[in-house]
Fold this protein.
Amino acid sequence: MQENNLQQWLKSACQEVGKGKLPSYIPLLAKADPQAIAIAIQKVNGEHLMAGDTALTFPLMSVIKPFLLFYLLETKGVDQVFQLVDREASSEPFNTIPEGKPKNPMINSGAIALSSLLDSCEILQNWLNQRSGTNLILDLEILASVRSVANRRNLAIAEQLKTLGIIANPSQALAVYEEICCLRGNVQDLAKIGTLLVDTQQSPNIPIVLEIMTQCGMYESSSEFAQNIGVPSKSSISGALLSIIPDQASISCYSPALDEIGNSVSGLFLIRQIKNYVLGLGREAH
């Protein structure tokens, strides 16, 4: 894969922007430039490719969820993590108020439950920066914008988790969750932290995270995405999209115009092109 491939795909992806819309319910996200677009590919051997507005930074939002899961699996263990959350696919919207144990760590209820195991945002932030050589920072402006929303659905989710006996301190869990979602970086930062999940031999927890990403990472379209693309991925309402090609590379995209489910329309286009390209190379090799 060459840089000119990326440049060509990026031009085509720009045509997809009109099919999406900026999210309206978080004020600062609604002010993003809908034409902004970037992609970074970080290979396991250290090689990398980038194209587009690669210096542009954005809040990670939900794309942080696989890393919250991975950190807690590494530090707390499988049993403690899955006492709080299941690992089942869900066709419900990502912000559904749970009636019982959250279905998986990629929906808000699951991530808020897991955030109750994290003492502070800084712990995850520092762990990711130190392990991947990034400089993720907490974006206080976007955090204030998130907390300015009148009807905070996540507040209701956190209170319900307490009612269900899953967490003890909903305000602390929600505060940590909102902060980790407001960590900010560029596409190269996202691709670099993505490499923590590429080498499946590095930790027995990596295949667990990748399986959950495959089944649950793309909101209600996860099942269709898994069938059509089949690459472990996580999307975000900020327009960030991370995909992992196990044992090969981490791919990150940013384009803030979203489809009706909440996935970046241009990001989806780019991941599809890369997957088709990789498949084409495989056929040529045979």
Notes: The radius of gyration is 18 Å. Residues 136 and 158 are 26 Å apart (CA to CA). Residues 281-286 have pLDDT under 50 and may be disordered.
